[in-house]
Amino acid sequence: MTSFSEASAGRGRGRRIILWRHGQTSWNVERRFQGSTDVELTETGLAQARRAARLLASLRPDAMVASDLRRAAATAAELATLTGLAITHDEALRETYAGVWQGLTHDEIIARYGDEYTAWKRGEPVRRGGGELETEVADRAAPVVLRHAEKLPEDGTLVVVSHGGTIRTTIGRLLGLDPHHWESLGGLSNCCWSVLGEGARGWRLLEHNAGTLPEPVLGDDD
Questions:
Q1: Which segments within 48-188 are labelled E, that is strand?
Q2: E strand or H helix at 197
Q3: What is the per-residue pLDDT across 1-28, written as a single tens digit (0 to 9) for each?
Q4: Which positions ≥6 away from 122 have C-beta within 8 Å?
Q5: Is 95 labeled as catalytic in the residue annotation?
Q6: What is the widest separation between alpha-carbon atoms in the chain?
Q7: Which is the most buried residue in 40, 62, 103, 155, by most CB within 10 A?
Q8: Which pLDDT score, from 0 to 100, does residue 218 have?
Q9: Which of 78, 95, 116, 207 is catalytic?
Q10: Edge-to-edge strand order for the sheet containing 63-66?
Q11: Catalytic site residue 22?
Q12: Is 89:73 a contact under the CB 8 Å cutoff?
């Protein structure tokens, strides 16, 4: 059985989407809710992006689209430098707008908006801080991803550089999961990525929160 890296090199395994979270920011370190606030990468974040870009470049991606927020744009730029790919920036790939939560630390959110936070964690549709619903984030981000994926060659690979919440909701939408279960996908670490592959019954999750190139999957269903 082939690995993803072999498949993405054009060996008849269908289209792939790599959803790549941006590198570390100072607000990530402080556990401060960023949302759509435009926070830059730290030096550590830039180093993370450079390391991840070297790995992802080996997969020979065909196209790249990124959030226009600086932390995602700078992450994408590292891969563009290595591959020569043009970056399409799209504000629809920004992180969830979370109103008054933005700029608050995790502890401050719990202290001030504990009931709202608990309801969100239960999977209820909550406008965190008066901002967007997760389904609204998926409504704006998933069509952008699909539109760019549709332009790929038969065995092509698309890199999407975005944000943890937006990536999770987009994956949930593309997999056809009920929004109540999107949280079960879990978050992505800084500069890690998830991989979707196009199968006979639609998109399927091949890798989640990966930071190294995938190993072959030895199973009974392929």
A1: 63-66, 87-89, 157-162
A2: strand 193-199
A3: 234 444 344 445 799 999 999 999 999 9
A4: none
A5: yes
A6: 53
A7: 62
A8: 52
A9: 95
A10: 87-89, 63-66, 157-162, 16-21, 193-199, 202-210
A11: yes
A12: yes
Contact 158, 18 (CB under 8 A): yes
In a 13 Å sphere around the CA of 5, the CA atoms on its Cβ side amount to: 10
Say if CB 186 and CB 208 are below 8 A apart: yes
8 Å CB contact between 207 and 194: yes
CA 160 from chain centre, in angstroms, equals 7
- Residue at token pair 């080996």: 58
Q: What is the mean pLDDT of the chain?
A: 91
Among positive and negative, which fits the CA dihedral 76, 77, 78, 83?
Answer: positive
From the list 94, 83, 84, the residue with the least C-alpha distance to 56 is 83
Spatial distance between the Cα atoms of 180 and 198, rounded to a whole number of angstroms: 23
Q: What is the mean pLDDT of residues 176-186?
A: 92
Is pLDDT at 194 greater than 80 in this prediction?
yes
Residue of 96, 78, 90, 93 whose CA lies nearest to 19: 93
Structure confidence at residue 31 as a pLDDT band (50, 70, 90): very high
Altogether, the residues listed in the chain come to a count of 222
41-85: pLDDT as tens digits: 999 999 999 999 999 999 999 999 999 999 999 999 999 999 999
Rg (CA), the chain: 17
